Amino acid sequence: MKIEIYDTTLRDGAQGAGISFTDDNKREIIVALDELGVSYIEVGNAASPADAAFLRGAGSLELRNSTPVAFCATRRAWQCAASDASLAFAAGLSLPCVAVVGKSSRYQIENVLGTTPEENLSMIKDTVAYLRSAGKRVFFDAEHFFDGYGDDPAYALEVLRTAYDAGAERIVLCDTNGGMLPDVIGVVVNAVRTRLPDAPLGIHCHDDMGMAAACSAEAVISGAVMVQGTISGIGERCGNCDLSTIIPVLQLKLGFSCIPGDSLSKLTRLSRKIIEEANLSFDERSPFVGGYAFTHKAGMHIDAVRKRPRTFEHISPELVGNSGDLLISGMAGKSAYQAVLDKIAPELHIEVGSQKFEAVISKIREYESVGFQFEGAEASLLLVVYEALGVRPRFFDLLTFRVMISEPMSVNPHSLDAAFIKLAIPDGDGGVREEFAAAEGAGPVAALDAALRRALNASYPSLTAVRLSDYKVRVLDSASETTSSAVRVMIESTDGRAIWRTVGVSADIVDASWQALRDSIEYYLFKREKGVTTD
Description:
This protein is of the alpha/beta class. Helix content is about 40%, strand content about 20%. It has helices at about 25-35, 50-60, 85-90, 105-115, 115-135, 145-150, 155-165, 180-195, 210-220, 245-255, 265-275, 300-305, 335-345, 355-370, 380-390, 445-455, 510-530; strands at about 5, 40-45, 65-75, 95-105, 135-145, 170-175, 200-205, 225-230, 295, 325, 395-405, 415-425, 430-440, 465-475, 485-495, 500-505.
């Protein structure tokens, strides 16, 4: 059975705190969603001046799998639909579909709209009929439906019947406050299907109790044919139903068809791309698509997964375009170390008990003793393994660097720090040449990163594809004077295709950052030299 996936990342998702999209961001997100194969993409709010220009041009988007949708509210109370500016704008767009939101709760109607339940029905009827007369397909979002149904089931159902009779193709039941439990959702959806058996139903859940995906799944099991949500669940307050979770749940666990089968393997990559366009840090603990979703740390788990992955993996990660990972830590035994080494450096043939194995373990523990942690920093770990065996690749050597801190940006928002760096780089003929570069940046690490790249670009032009995607600092000994404590810096880098993470530790935050920056660049160049991708 086909379940329509309706993405509202660009509208409802943009209502989340700290989230905004440029028109370029929007176009990139739409392209990614179309590649994923969602049925509908809500591209903007007809009542928003900020969305107006984009909506006008959205009809020219060349989409293969998805249909673009404009969003608007019902007409104002005691007015006619044709005189409502946002409705007239939506009706004049070249987009084929319009989603209309209307109240379905008496409490909301009386206390927010300040009108009567009867006039609310007229607002819905007139709005849907007006848009249908303009040739639009109309979806009706019944806002606060489940709360309204709890207060007055007869009226909430009358709202749905009014919208459907006026020509709405989909009737979407909204848990706008995100306060419903899955079993309640199921009972109510079944009740609606009994009263409106011909109306195709949708579900729109918010995640205020962390149950939006579960509630959406229950709605589908109970007969809904459309699921609305956002990538990574971004949105107002606690967000919306996470499409990156609900799509594989419906498709892999419940047997529904949501997106083309071959598109599911693109889910991890495209989810990351969309969140990157939103300028947000990707939640690595996200189900299915997170970097830790199939990561194993405990020695017993690692041993079991090596023998039979299904022991601790509920699906094959490749189904959603993800991959499994193994971590080593103080709780790891020799078999766990062996598994990790086999995974990250199989070409070294390091066997338990061998001289190479003992050298590697000794070097790792030496680093760990001063605060290094290689969980989630596999790129640095690989370099440490090669270092322990005396074969770590050297693409450049640091001769010196200096960072100059300018006045704080809180005093001067245009202030930039500066960095100067001198490197020794192999010239390919057995010698080395010195490269000196200087750069500015919004902070010492940004300046140092820019100077390092400038010094290396002539020798390694492929580095232009590499950039930092995340930067985290942690104080290691918070019991001591925190201003003099050692810090651990974790850097995430990407070349647009893959991500990798590196780590540095020092009492000097700039030095710790330098270590992680150096490892990031060396790892990328090492993988390029070996002729493999950075995955």
